[in-house]
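From the methods appendix. Each design record in this collection lists the tokenized structure first, followed by the designed amino acid sequence. Records were kept in a plain field format so they could be parsed without special tools. The example shown here is representative of the layout used throughout.

RECORD:
FOLD TOKENS (321 positions):
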């Protein structure tokens, strides 16, 4: 996953530089950051840092914790390089909107090309991850080939999957829904990118794709992974598996209201102020759902957090750990 991590590090450094420039410009003016440089900062943080980090974490952790086939390097590296190229094109196009001698109308097409590449890369890679997750519950081929008794190994694996669901709840479904939102974001980025590439305005606001990444993909992925990984690190257990099911519904509900209201805005605007009020109501309801999601996630993980030092028995030397 080195190319993904390289994208993460480069984006973090560029984001720090852009934010420094924003602060200096805002301090020397009216205290407001320009829309173009704000777009660059958001893109670096969201598409340059969070998404590659999440994809790298998925590639490393999912085969281990969810019992999936490992993702080969011949798929990971081209995906990372193509994604990084799309990110670079999108940032270059946004740079042309900041003014200065490099400003040109053609930069909007460059940004569109970059967004289209990012979107299509996400769609293809998430589709591949979805195929891997669809095979969960069946013994991975690499394990089956090495097992002395494949049928017995398959039965043991099925029992293991059932036991994990009883212990940790539907955390795999939570992770799967996160990838579904990443797939939606990829489609939205591709649609808007193609529109910009053709010289038209984006048919759907880019905020819909951004919220699909942040509220749908990142939030749900972190919740699903932490429910399984943190107890493994601490040796504790989550509060209750049923709470993970609540996280599944609350998180997806918040994402659906947030993204759906943005996608539906042009259609509801036809009905005048009533349609806009309804759209604002739907958008606003995602906030309380998201807050409830965060609170329940904290309650779920609290017993698994290593809040107290581990005790040692009388026969255990103090430095045995």
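DESIGN:
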């Amino acid at each position: 996953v080195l190319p993904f991590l390289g994208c993460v590090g480069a984006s973090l450094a560029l984001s720090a530089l852009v934010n420094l420039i924003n602060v200096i410009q805002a301090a020397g003016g009216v205290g407001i950051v320009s829309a173009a440089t704000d777009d660059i900062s958001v893109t670096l943080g969201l598409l340059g840092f969070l998404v590659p980090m999440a994809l790298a974490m998925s590639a490393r952790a999912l085969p281990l914790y969810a019992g999936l086939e490992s993702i080969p390097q011949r798929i990971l590296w081209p995906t990372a390089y193509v994604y990084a190229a799309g990110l670079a094109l999108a940032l270059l196009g946004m740079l042309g909107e900041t003014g200065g001698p490099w400003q040109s109308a053609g930069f909007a097409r460059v940004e569109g090309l970059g967004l289209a590449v990012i979107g299509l890369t996400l769609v293809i890679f998430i589709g591949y991850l979805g195929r891997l997750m669809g095979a969960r519950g069946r013994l991975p081929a690499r394990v089956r080939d090495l097992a002395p008794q494949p049928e017995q190994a398959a039965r043991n694996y099925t029992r293991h999957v059932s036991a994990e669901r009883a212990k940790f709840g539907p955390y795999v479904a939570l992770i799967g829904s996160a990838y579904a939102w990443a797939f939606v974001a990829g489609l939205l980025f591709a649609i808007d990118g193609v529109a910009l590439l053709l010289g038209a305005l984006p048919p759907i606001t880019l905020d819909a794709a951004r919220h699909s990444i942040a509220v749908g993909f990142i939030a749900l992925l972190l919740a699903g992974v932490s429910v399984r990984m943190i107890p493994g690190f601490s040796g504790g257990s989550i509060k209750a598996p049923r709470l993970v099911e609540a996280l599944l519904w609350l998180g997806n509900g918040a994402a659906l209201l947030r993204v759906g209201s943005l996608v539906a805005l042009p259609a509801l605007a036809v009905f005048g102020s009533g349609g806009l009020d309804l759209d604002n109501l739907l958008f606003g309801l995602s906030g309380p759902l998201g807050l409830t999601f965060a609170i329940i996630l904290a309650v779920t993980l609290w017993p698994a957090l290593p809040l107290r030092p581990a005790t040692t028995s009388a026969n255990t030397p103090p430095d045995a750990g």
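APPENDIX NOTE: The longest helix spans residues 35-65.
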